[in-house]
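Structure (tokenized):
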């Protein structure tokens, strides 16, 4: 009898020293910096949650882990479980799979970089579609005007991946590989098999090329309804904050919000959402959560809904 496929687990790589953002990151992790009204790590965390992933490992530097624990806790407030893993030295993106091997325990995974911001109505569906594959790897492409700055994937006549090159001098396509990867349970073993690059790192491109050589690499190109922002430089960090502010003003609700994603997934109810919103009663983020809560509560309210509304004006402290 064939066993049921294992549920995917999530990995957020939030290590590194953020040297391109110095002096901002001399005393704080890059992934803790604000992108408009919330910490950067909220965005990749929400992306994984929107795909239905409830077990997530956050990989941090040794000195930054305490701050992430204080910010995110164990995830119970959002109906998820967060585990923390130390990355002693930044030895490449593919190292994340080796460090996470015990956490994954044979499960497939979705890895997202902690400084990547994704948004779009099609995104969660594309991730879930990629997760439906039992074997192989999937990457998410995004057309850019300057592909030489990224890992670039080219497609063959059949629409399948033909080549994958890191920062090519002469790119064969304009499709950049974003910081979002869906890999099968063999990823940790494959990561152990690749050799460090000349700069001494286990490159994610090398790992993905092992799947490409086995004809097991799929590419999902994100369309114009999706947004991908890499916040690794001062300019891109500023641009990301502007984009989030404009988008939230247009749709009238926060994006990249773990509280809202958890509520929409049915992992928390209205009352729990109200209690979480009350933690931020003096901030713009808290006000936005309260507006969302009021719009989400049905007109014909149940007693729990009425209590949730009361929570908006009568905040209570939430245990961390």
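Design, position by position:
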């Amino acid at each position: 009898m064939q066993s049921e496929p294992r549920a995917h687990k999530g990995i957020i790589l939030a290590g590194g020293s953020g040297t391109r953002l110095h002096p901002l990151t001399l005393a704080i992790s890059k992934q803790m910096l604000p992108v408009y009204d919330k910490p950067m790590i909220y965005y990749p965390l929400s992306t994984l949650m929107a795909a239905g992933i409830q077990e997530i490992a956050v990989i941090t530097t040794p000195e930054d882990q305490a701050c992430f624990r204080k910010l995110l806790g164990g995830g119970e407030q959002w109906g998820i479980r967060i585990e923390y893993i130390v990355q002693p030295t930044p030895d490449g993106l593919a190292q994340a799979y080796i460090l996470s091997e015990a956490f994954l325990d044979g499960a497939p995974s979705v890895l997202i970089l902690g400084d990547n911001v994704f948004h779009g109505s099609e995104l969660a569906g594309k991730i879930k579609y990629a997760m439906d594959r039992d074997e192989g790897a999937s990457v998410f492409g995004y057309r850019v005007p300057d592909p030489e700055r990224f890992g670039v994937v080219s497609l063959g006549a059949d629409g399948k991946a033909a080549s994958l090159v890191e920062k090519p001098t002469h790119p064969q396509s304009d499709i950049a590989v974003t910081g979002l990867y869906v890999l099968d349970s063999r990823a940790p073993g494959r990561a152990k098999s690749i050799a460090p690059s000349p700069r001494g790192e286990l490159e994610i491109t090398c790992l993905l090329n092992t799947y490409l050589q086995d004809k097991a690499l799929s590419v999902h190109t994100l369309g114009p309804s999706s947004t991908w922002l890499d916040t690794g430089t001062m300019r891109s960090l500023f641009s990301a904050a502007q984009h989030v502010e404009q988008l939230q003003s247009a749709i009238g609700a926060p994006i990249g919000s773990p509280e809202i994603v958890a509520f929409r997934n049915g992992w928390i109810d209205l009352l729990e959402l109200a209690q979480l919103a009350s933690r931020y009663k003096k901030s713009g983020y808290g006000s936005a959560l309260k507006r969302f809560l009021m719009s989400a509560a049905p007109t014909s309210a149940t007693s729990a809904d009425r209590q949730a509304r009361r929570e908006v004006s009568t905040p209570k402290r939430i245990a961390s």
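Reviewer-requested clarification: Residues 234-251 form the longest helix (18 residues). The chain has a mean pLDDT of 91.
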